[in-house]
Amino acid sequence: MLNRLMFPLAILSVLAACGKPPEAPATTGASDFATYCAACHGAGGKGDGTRSASLDPAPTDLTTIAARNGGTFPRAKVMTQIWGYARATPTPEMPGYATLLAGEMVLYDSGDGILTPTPLRLVELMEYVQKL
Ligand code: HEC
Question: How far is the CA of 41 from the centre of ligand 1 (A)?
């Protein structure tokens, strides 16, 4: 009887000693861009990814977003475009990434002076696109 009790208890204490389960490998804006965006937009964001030739409309050149917007990078707009819900004409060509980027939230001021709860990975990805 004692042995039958001790064995599960021993397993439990070993599990408890292990602490938290290992976390998923950390992502960065750069790694998310390489994994999810470069195939269409190109490694440098110029719209020349390997899949770009077959897409209509073609992926845009992400390095000219600020220039096309009067010199200001529209951070909130770009985040909603990546997220998916603000696209005027959602097309299968540019997928939405809401599910993928959901997770840890941060308070982020995208330029309007208001700290808005925003997914961290979305912020990191947008800031990476801004630097392209
Ligand atoms: C399957 C191809 C594809 C993938 C993958 C893709 N995009 Fe796009 N993206 C497009 C196309 C095509 C457009 C332009 C047409 C449209 O508006 O639907 C676009 C438009 C955009 C725009 C609007 C740019 C502008 O010039 O105003 C942004 C920002 C953007 N993509 C960022 C991203 C990011 C960041 C990722 C990765 C998370 C990504 N895209 C993944 C195809 C893709």
Answer: 7
